[in-house]
Amino acid sequence: MLPLMLTITFDPEKDSNQDTSSSIGRYDGPAETIVEYAADGLQRNYALDSIYGKDAAQQEIDLQRHRTRQTIISVLSQRANAVANDRSDDEESSISIDTKSLKDTYKNLEDENVENGLPTKQDGTEFSSIDPELVTWDGESDPDFPRNWSRFRKIRAILLVSCYTFVSPVCSSMLSPATAKVAEEFGIDNYVVKSLLVSIFVLAWAIAPLFVAPFSEMFGRRIVLNLSIWFMFMFNLGCCLAQNTTQMLVFRFLAGIGGAAPLSIGAGVLGDLFNDMDRNFWTSIYGLGPTLGPTVGPIVAGFVVQTIDWRWVFWIQLIINGIFALLGSLFFEETYSPILLRNKAKALRKETANPNLKTIYDIADGETILGRFYLNITRPLKLLLFHPMVFGLGSFMAVLYGLMYLLICTFPTVWGTIYGFNIGICGLMFSALGIGYLVGIPFWNNFIQIGYEKLIIKNNGQAKPEFRLQYLYYSGILAPGSLLIYGWTAQNHVYWIVPAFFSASFSFAIICMFQCIQNYLIDMNPRFAASTVAAAAVFRSLFGFAFPLFAPYMFEDLGYGWGNTIFALIGFALGIPFPIYVYKNGERLRNWANRRMEREKAKRDAKNLARLQKQLENEKN
């Protein structure tokens, strides 16, 4: 029995005189009925006899299949062409145009986590009534749709992804207290090479996301995350057994490539599972991994290096890596809806013996494999270079992230040389950063969320991504200010608890920056959310790699007071005026850049769909 449907019928005669550029998302072809959503709680019967009847002729079935596929592609093609031919943003006066037209065009795609190139809602559910063999979700409340999962399933998925993102930063920073011992055994005299032992791991995070994203879009989150964590495991083992500097640097870099996947795909998992209102809290939970990781690693490593041997730093990394890799391989579920639908279609084909069951992506995704790789690899770079909001916020995030790794790399020198602490206590001093993170996560989560909800109410219930940025300037004041005081108090050998307090204050401010920008980058254009986050990850990882390499020379010449003053002034210059400016004017810039990106993507969609239409015509002939 077919499910009950709420439907919308388009009348071509009534709409024929309207301009397609103004009736975006409208279908002007045959008067087909387009489904809006399936009634909740009802499951469709995909058996061949139930769909067409036992007496249906094969020729009639083939003809109906051809017509329904042609209708679907025609609807999607006209939607794509409507955006591709929209030139409204060419005029300066329309630079602040509202995004409503885009929302209408893509059938409210901002509510879905789609970066699949198809202008359709909820993975093609709207076409269920015209194609009975189209495998879709069973209504808006389908429990198999990731955003409708039970709380337990969502928590389990987020905790496992957070564990994955914890492993990578732990491995990146755990070596910091051991660099002197490694340098002594391998005969490393150059300070840059010593710093490179730690930061080359972060360099991999600036490169790998460009290549990891295509795999996660093509094969799903689960397989990419699980393979990456085992890839990191293998090369962490290589670090355990490394016998010279070259081997250590190569293995560290390759381990970093494995660790980059959770950091770039994690935002996609958040988008798969949660809507805008719920995401802030879960972003803070997810943020535990990349923020606490760099702190926990050196605390453990300090005492290990002092009491056992530096190689045990890597053996501990390997144990942590292996435990979380095993847990993830056993319990992490796929969250990417196109892959879940394809798995559902595969199971139904086997169950019903109907080989013609397909998803919307099997029918209408005309993008080639090479084309998909090209799009995913180049889009983060385009966003970073040509989207003013991504470039500006990415610069701010990159500076603070670079300063965070600067602290991590200089902590052993500050506490060991200036304060005379042994290696174990030097590692323990990293707990100051950890305290700042732990206090900052619940504080900023509540503070930012309350402010966000107040602005929504004030704006008549309409949310805007810029509402996420109203408190970003706090981090622009607090982080550089804390760094400034930390540097001068450390240089003047003020009682150790004072610089420790201001290093905690710095990490407290980092949480504000992370939550504001991460949420904004997801909200500002959900269609390109994964690429936007990847662009920021590339930028910040480059800074996290570079700062520890050249900054020690500045500290050697200028001291920690004036050295940190220079970095603090850069932070103030970028961190105070820019957050205020983007909060006031970001909507105009965002809409202008997003519309240009949507139009470019729509042109490619239209081209791919036109090719599919031509193939259908050839099949008919």
UniProtKB/TrEMBL annotation:
InterPro entries, alphabetized = MFS, MFS_dom, MFS_trans_sf, Sugar_transporter_CS
Which terms are listed as keywords in the entry? Answer: Membrane, Transmembrane, Transmembrane helix
Query: Where does the UniProt annotation locate this protein?
Result: Membrane
One GO cellular component term noted in the UniProt record for this chain:
plasma membrane
Q: What is one process in the GO biological process aspect for this record? A: export across plasma membrane
What Pfam families does the entry give?
MFS_1
From the record, give the transmembrane residue ranges: 157-176, 196-216, 223-244, 250-273, 285-306, 312-332, 383-408, 420-444, 494-516, 528-550, 562-583
Q: Which SUPFAM superfamilies match?
A: MFS general substrate transporter
Q: What organism does this protein naturally occur in? A: Ascoidea rubescens DSM 1968
Which PANTHER family does the record associate with it? MAJOR FACILITATOR SUPERFAMILY, MAJOR FACILITATOR SUPERFAMILY (MFS) PROFILE DOMAIN-CONTAINING PROTEIN-RELATED
> What is this protein's name?
Spermidine exporter, MDR-type pump
Give membrane topology per the record. Multi-pass membrane protein
